[in-house]
Amino acid sequence: MSDLEQDPQESVCGGLADVATEPVNELLIGRDVVLGGTRGMKVTRTLPNRDIRMVGAWCFLDHYGPEKATMSVAPHPHTGLQTVSWLVEGEVLHRDSVGSEQLIRPGQLNLMTAGRAISHAEVSPSDGDLHGVQLWVALPSAHREVAPAFEHHPVLPELTAPGVRVTVLMGELGGVVSPARTYSPLVGAEVTFDADGEILLPLRPDFEYAALALSGAVRVDETELAPGPLLYLGTGRSGLDLRAERPGRVLLLGGEPFEEQIVMWWNFVGRSHEEITRFRREWMESDEFGTVIGVNDAPLPAPELPTVAMKPRGRRR
Q1: Family assignment (predicted)?
Q2: Topology (CATH level 3) of domain 29-255
Q3: How far apart are CA 198 and CA 259, in angstroms?
Q4: Which residues pair with 263 in a beta bridge?
Protein backbone atom coordinates (compact mmCIF):
# COMPACT_ATOMS: atom_id res chain seq x y z
CA MET A 1 0.00 0.00 0.00
CA SER A 2 1.13 3.51 -0.77
CA ASP A 3 1.14 6.59 1.38
CA LEU A 4 -1.31 8.48 -0.84
CA GLU A 5 -1.30 11.77 1.05
CA GLN A 6 -0.92 14.69 -1.35
CA ASP A 7 1.20 16.63 1.13
CA PRO A 8 3.20 13.95 2.95
CA GLN A 9 5.25 15.14 5.89
CA GLU A 10 8.73 13.83 6.44
CA SER A 11 9.30 11.69 9.52
CA VAL A 12 12.72 11.16 11.02
CA CYS A 13 12.77 7.95 13.02
CA GLY A 14 15.13 5.67 14.88
CA GLY A 15 18.11 6.18 17.12
CA LEU A 16 18.40 5.03 20.71
CA ALA A 17 17.60 8.35 22.39
CA ASP A 18 14.28 8.24 24.27
CA VAL A 19 13.78 4.48 23.98
CA ALA A 20 11.90 3.43 27.10
CA THR A 21 14.39 1.55 29.27
CA GLU A 22 11.65 -0.12 31.30
CA PRO A 23 8.11 -1.40 30.84
CA VAL A 24 5.56 1.34 30.13
CA ASN A 25 1.91 1.45 29.06
CA GLU A 26 1.60 4.47 26.76
CA LEU A 27 -1.44 4.83 24.53
CA LEU A 28 -0.55 6.42 21.18
CA ILE A 29 -3.51 7.95 19.38
CA GLY A 30 -3.39 7.54 15.62
CA ARG A 31 -4.67 9.87 12.94
CA ASP A 32 -7.21 9.19 10.23
CA VAL A 33 -5.87 9.30 6.67
CA VAL A 34 -8.03 8.91 3.57
CA LEU A 35 -6.18 7.07 0.82
CA GLY A 36 -7.03 8.10 -2.72
CA GLY A 37 -8.93 11.35 -2.16
CA THR A 38 -12.08 12.24 -0.23
CA ARG A 39 -13.95 9.15 -1.49
CA GLY A 40 -11.05 6.81 -0.80
CA MET A 41 -10.49 4.25 1.92
CA LYS A 42 -9.94 5.54 5.44
CA VAL A 43 -7.10 4.16 7.52
CA THR A 44 -5.88 4.85 11.04
CA ARG A 45 -2.15 5.53 11.05
CA THR A 46 -0.42 4.91 14.39
CA LEU A 47 3.17 4.73 13.12
CA PRO A 48 4.96 7.01 12.68
CA ASN A 49 3.25 8.64 15.65
CA ARG A 50 3.55 12.13 17.06
CA ASP A 51 5.11 10.66 20.21
CA ILE A 52 6.81 7.42 19.12
CA ARG A 53 7.96 7.03 15.53
CA MET A 54 9.26 3.44 15.55
CA VAL A 55 8.94 0.16 17.44
CA GLY A 56 12.08 -1.78 16.68
CA ALA A 57 12.43 -1.61 12.90
CA TRP A 58 8.64 -1.22 12.46
CA CYS A 59 8.24 2.29 11.08
CA PHE A 60 4.75 2.45 9.52
CA LEU A 61 1.37 1.03 10.56
CA ASP A 62 -1.99 1.58 8.88
CA HIS A 63 -5.11 -0.21 10.16
CA TYR A 64 -8.15 -0.21 7.87
CA GLY A 65 -11.69 -1.58 8.15
CA PRO A 66 -13.72 -3.52 8.72
CA GLU A 67 -15.82 -1.82 6.05
CA LYS A 68 -17.13 -2.34 2.55
CA ALA A 69 -14.39 -0.77 0.49
CA THR A 70 -12.41 -1.13 -2.68
CA MET A 71 -8.64 -0.90 -2.60
CA SER A 72 -7.16 0.35 -5.84
CA VAL A 73 -3.62 1.64 -5.57
CA ALA A 74 -1.80 2.35 -8.85
CA PRO A 75 1.91 1.50 -9.31
CA HIS A 76 4.10 3.38 -6.85
CA PRO A 77 7.70 3.09 -5.62
CA HIS A 78 9.43 2.01 -2.44
CA THR A 79 13.03 2.10 -1.22
CA GLY A 80 14.85 0.97 1.91
CA LEU A 81 12.02 -1.01 3.50
CA GLN A 82 9.88 -4.14 3.57
CA THR A 83 6.09 -3.95 3.18
CA VAL A 84 4.07 -6.39 5.29
CA SER A 85 0.45 -7.03 4.25
CA TRP A 86 -1.89 -8.83 6.66
CA LEU A 87 -5.65 -9.30 6.18
CA VAL A 88 -8.44 -10.13 8.62
CA GLU A 89 -11.19 -9.95 5.98
CA GLY A 90 -11.27 -9.64 2.20
CA GLU A 91 -8.78 -10.19 -0.61
CA VAL A 92 -6.09 -8.01 -2.21
CA LEU A 93 -4.20 -8.69 -5.44
CA HIS A 94 -0.53 -7.69 -5.41
CA ARG A 95 1.58 -7.08 -8.53
CA ASP A 96 5.14 -5.76 -8.58
CA SER A 97 8.05 -4.88 -10.85
CA VAL A 98 9.95 -8.13 -10.16
CA GLY A 99 7.11 -10.02 -11.85
CA SER A 100 5.09 -11.15 -8.82
CA GLU A 101 1.31 -11.53 -9.00
CA GLN A 102 -0.26 -12.84 -5.81
CA LEU A 103 -3.72 -12.78 -4.25
CA ILE A 104 -3.57 -12.50 -0.48
CA ARG A 105 -6.34 -13.78 1.79
CA PRO A 106 -6.85 -13.63 5.58
CA GLY A 107 -4.21 -15.50 7.54
CA GLN A 108 -1.64 -15.26 4.75
CA LEU A 109 1.44 -13.04 4.61
CA ASN A 110 2.62 -10.93 1.68
CA LEU A 111 6.13 -9.61 2.25
CA MET A 112 7.82 -7.34 -0.29
CA THR A 113 11.43 -6.27 0.15
CA ALA A 114 12.03 -3.00 -1.67
CA GLY A 115 15.78 -2.92 -1.20
CA ARG A 116 17.32 -0.42 -3.56
CA ALA A 117 14.12 0.07 -5.65
CA ILE A 118 10.81 -1.62 -6.42
CA SER A 119 7.32 -0.61 -7.54
CA HIS A 120 4.01 -2.37 -7.00
CA ALA A 121 0.23 -2.03 -7.26
CA GLU A 122 -2.60 -3.40 -5.13
CA VAL A 123 -6.29 -3.86 -5.87
CA SER A 124 -9.16 -5.66 -4.14
CA PRO A 125 -10.93 -7.85 -6.71
CA SER A 126 -14.44 -7.19 -5.27
CA ASP A 127 -16.43 -4.62 -3.31
CA GLY A 128 -16.70 -6.83 -0.22
CA ASP A 129 -15.54 -6.18 3.31
CA LEU A 130 -11.90 -5.24 3.80
CA HIS A 131 -10.06 -5.35 7.10
CA GLY A 132 -6.35 -5.51 7.64
CA VAL A 133 -3.07 -3.77 8.31
CA GLN A 134 -0.22 -2.52 6.19
CA LEU A 135 3.17 -2.25 7.88
CA TRP A 136 6.64 -1.17 6.84
CA VAL A 137 9.93 -2.44 8.27
CA ALA A 138 12.97 -0.20 7.86
CA LEU A 139 16.02 -1.95 6.44
CA PRO A 140 19.34 -1.32 8.22
CA SER A 141 22.11 0.28 6.17
CA ALA A 142 23.91 -3.03 5.70
CA HIS A 143 20.91 -4.43 3.79
CA ARG A 144 18.98 -1.52 2.33
CA GLU A 145 20.60 -1.99 -1.11
CA VAL A 146 19.58 -5.65 -1.40
CA ALA A 147 17.89 -6.78 -4.59
CA PRO A 148 14.11 -6.32 -4.55
CA ALA A 149 12.14 -9.47 -3.76
CA PHE A 150 8.68 -10.79 -2.90
CA GLU A 151 7.50 -13.62 -0.63
CA HIS A 152 4.06 -15.13 -0.08
CA HIS A 153 3.50 -17.36 2.94
CA PRO A 154 0.07 -19.04 2.87
CA VAL A 155 0.72 -20.96 6.09
CA LEU A 156 2.49 -19.56 9.14
CA PRO A 157 3.57 -21.21 12.42
CA GLU A 158 1.45 -20.85 15.55
CA LEU A 159 1.53 -20.98 19.32
CA THR A 160 -1.64 -22.10 21.08
CA ALA A 161 -3.18 -21.94 24.53
CA PRO A 162 -6.75 -22.66 25.68
CA GLY A 163 -8.93 -20.25 23.73
CA VAL A 164 -5.93 -18.49 22.12
CA ARG A 165 -4.07 -18.85 18.81
CA VAL A 166 -0.86 -16.89 18.14
CA THR A 167 0.25 -16.63 14.50
CA VAL A 168 3.89 -15.59 14.07
CA LEU A 169 4.09 -13.37 10.99
CA MET A 170 7.71 -12.26 11.28
CA GLY A 171 10.64 -13.19 13.46
CA GLU A 172 10.50 -15.51 16.48
CA LEU A 173 8.16 -15.79 19.46
CA GLY A 174 8.25 -18.48 22.13
CA GLY A 175 10.55 -20.66 20.04
CA VAL A 176 8.26 -20.48 17.00
CA VAL A 177 9.99 -18.99 13.95
CA SER A 178 8.31 -17.47 10.90
CA PRO A 179 9.74 -18.41 7.48
CA ALA A 180 9.57 -14.75 6.38
CA ARG A 181 12.91 -13.07 5.66
CA THR A 182 14.00 -10.43 8.19
CA TYR A 183 17.05 -8.16 8.27
CA SER A 184 17.02 -7.07 11.93
CA PRO A 185 15.89 -8.70 15.20
CA LEU A 186 12.10 -8.23 15.37
CA VAL A 187 8.77 -9.97 15.81
CA GLY A 188 5.25 -9.52 14.49
CA ALA A 189 2.37 -11.74 15.65
CA GLU A 190 -1.42 -11.82 15.63
CA VAL A 191 -3.09 -13.12 18.79
CA THR A 192 -6.66 -14.37 18.28
CA PHE A 193 -8.92 -14.94 21.31
CA ASP A 194 -12.04 -16.97 21.88
CA ALA A 195 -14.23 -15.90 24.81
CA ASP A 196 -12.28 -15.99 28.09
CA GLY A 197 -8.98 -16.71 26.35
CA GLU A 198 -5.76 -15.89 28.19
CA ILE A 199 -2.06 -16.31 27.48
CA LEU A 200 1.29 -15.24 28.92
CA LEU A 201 3.54 -14.51 25.96
CA PRO A 202 7.31 -14.86 26.43
CA LEU A 203 9.12 -11.66 25.47
CA ARG A 204 12.72 -10.52 25.11
CA PRO A 205 13.74 -7.85 27.65
CA ASP A 206 16.03 -6.19 25.06
CA PHE A 207 13.14 -5.67 22.63
CA GLU A 208 10.66 -2.81 22.71
CA TYR A 209 7.04 -3.78 22.05
CA ALA A 210 3.67 -2.37 21.10
CA ALA A 211 0.16 -3.82 20.70
CA LEU A 212 -2.76 -2.86 18.45
CA ALA A 213 -6.27 -4.27 18.88
CA LEU A 214 -7.74 -5.33 15.54
CA SER A 215 -11.16 -6.34 16.87
CA GLY A 216 -12.94 -6.78 20.17
CA ALA A 217 -11.43 -5.63 23.44
CA VAL A 218 -8.28 -7.29 24.77
CA ARG A 219 -6.67 -6.64 28.15
CA VAL A 220 -2.94 -6.17 27.60
CA ASP A 221 -0.95 -5.98 30.85
CA GLU A 222 -3.99 -4.54 32.68
CA THR A 223 -4.74 -2.01 29.93
CA GLU A 224 -8.09 -2.49 28.17
CA LEU A 225 -7.27 -2.10 24.48
CA ALA A 226 -9.92 -1.55 21.80
CA PRO A 227 -9.31 -0.84 18.09
CA GLY A 228 -7.80 2.60 17.52
CA PRO A 229 -4.72 3.50 19.57
CA LEU A 230 -1.37 1.72 19.64
CA LEU A 231 -0.24 0.65 23.11
CA TYR A 232 3.52 1.21 23.48
CA LEU A 233 4.97 -1.21 26.03
CA GLY A 234 8.62 -0.17 26.24
CA THR A 235 11.43 -2.62 27.01
CA GLY A 236 12.50 -4.77 29.95
CA ARG A 237 9.69 -7.33 29.75
CA SER A 238 10.21 -11.09 29.91
CA GLY A 239 6.50 -11.81 29.51
CA LEU A 240 3.20 -10.18 28.60
CA ASP A 241 -0.21 -11.19 29.93
CA LEU A 242 -3.12 -10.92 27.47
CA ARG A 243 -6.72 -11.95 28.02
CA ALA A 244 -10.15 -11.31 26.56
CA GLU A 245 -13.66 -11.90 27.90
CA ARG A 246 -15.07 -11.94 24.37
CA PRO A 247 -13.58 -12.89 21.00
CA GLY A 248 -10.94 -10.44 19.78
CA ARG A 249 -7.67 -9.97 17.95
CA VAL A 250 -4.53 -8.04 18.77
CA LEU A 251 -1.36 -7.41 16.76
CA LEU A 252 1.92 -7.57 18.67
CA LEU A 253 4.97 -5.79 17.25
CA GLY A 254 8.44 -5.80 18.73
CA GLY A 255 12.08 -5.53 17.96
CA GLU A 256 15.52 -4.47 19.00
CA PRO A 257 15.50 -0.64 19.14
CA PHE A 258 16.61 0.61 15.74
CA GLU A 259 19.96 2.37 16.18
CA GLU A 260 20.03 4.29 12.90
CA GLN A 261 18.11 7.44 12.18
CA ILE A 262 16.05 7.26 9.00
CA VAL A 263 14.14 9.80 6.95
CA MET A 264 10.70 8.72 5.72
CA TRP A 265 8.89 10.70 3.05
CA TRP A 266 6.02 9.49 0.85
CA ASN A 267 6.97 5.88 0.03
CA PHE A 268 10.71 6.23 0.51
CA VAL A 269 12.96 5.40 3.46
CA GLY A 270 16.39 7.01 3.24
CA ARG A 271 19.02 8.63 5.41
CA SER A 272 19.02 12.25 4.25
CA HIS A 273 17.08 14.93 2.38
CA GLU A 274 19.46 14.57 -0.55
CA GLU A 275 18.82 10.84 -0.78
CA ILE A 276 15.04 11.30 -0.71
CA THR A 277 15.38 13.93 -3.44
CA ARG A 278 17.31 11.45 -5.56
CA PHE A 279 14.71 8.72 -5.04
CA ARG A 280 11.95 11.07 -6.13
CA ARG A 281 13.87 12.15 -9.22
CA GLU A 282 14.60 8.55 -10.22
CA TRP A 283 10.94 7.60 -9.83
CA MET A 284 9.78 10.50 -11.96
CA GLU A 285 12.52 10.49 -14.60
CA SER A 286 14.02 7.00 -14.94
CA ASP A 287 13.13 3.31 -15.05
CA GLU A 288 15.08 2.47 -11.89
CA PHE A 289 11.94 1.13 -10.19
CA GLY A 290 10.90 -1.17 -13.04
CA THR A 291 7.46 -1.72 -14.53
CA VAL A 292 4.40 -3.39 -13.00
CA ILE A 293 2.94 -5.67 -15.68
CA GLY A 294 -0.82 -6.25 -15.96
CA VAL A 295 -1.93 -2.91 -14.55
CA ASN A 296 -3.73 -0.34 -16.69
CA ASP A 297 -3.50 2.56 -14.22
CA ALA A 298 -0.73 5.08 -14.76
CA PRO A 299 1.99 5.15 -12.08
CA LEU A 300 1.36 7.55 -9.21
CA PRO A 301 3.27 10.82 -9.54
CA ALA A 302 5.38 11.81 -6.56
CA PRO A 303 4.18 14.80 -4.53
CA GLU A 304 6.29 17.93 -4.37
CA LEU A 305 9.14 17.84 -1.87
CA PRO A 306 9.04 20.00 1.26
CA THR A 307 10.49 23.48 0.83
CA VAL A 308 12.86 22.94 3.76
CA ALA A 309 15.48 20.24 4.14
CA MET A 310 14.47 17.13 6.07
CA LYS A 311 16.66 16.75 9.14
CA PRO A 312 16.87 14.20 11.96
CA ARG A 313 14.89 15.10 15.07
CA GLY A 314 15.05 11.91 17.11
CA ARG A 315 12.38 9.39 18.11
CA ARG A 316 10.07 11.83 19.90
CA ARG A 317 8.80 15.24 18.95
Answers
A1: Belongs to the pirin family.
A2: Jelly Rolls (2.60.120)
A3: 34
A4: 12, 270
Q: In this predicted model, what pLDDT tens digit does every residue of 230-248 receive, in sequence order?
A: 999 999 999 999 999 999 9
The answer for residues whose C-beta is within 8 angstroms of residue 185's C-beta and 6 or more apart is 56, 171, 207, 255, 256
Identify the sign of the CA torsion 59, 62, 249, 232: positive
CA 253 vs. chain centroid, Å, equals 9
62, 133 Cβ separation under 8 angstroms: yes
Please choose, from the candidates 53, 120, 1, 55, the residue with its C-alpha nearest in 3D space to the C-alpha of residue 256: 55
Q: Domain map of the chain by residue range?
A: 29-255
Strand partners, 204: none
Give residue-wise pLDDT tens across range 17-63.
667 778 999 999 999 998 765 567 889 999 999 889 999 999 999 99
List the one residue out of 113, 50, 78 whose CA is nearest residue 283.
78
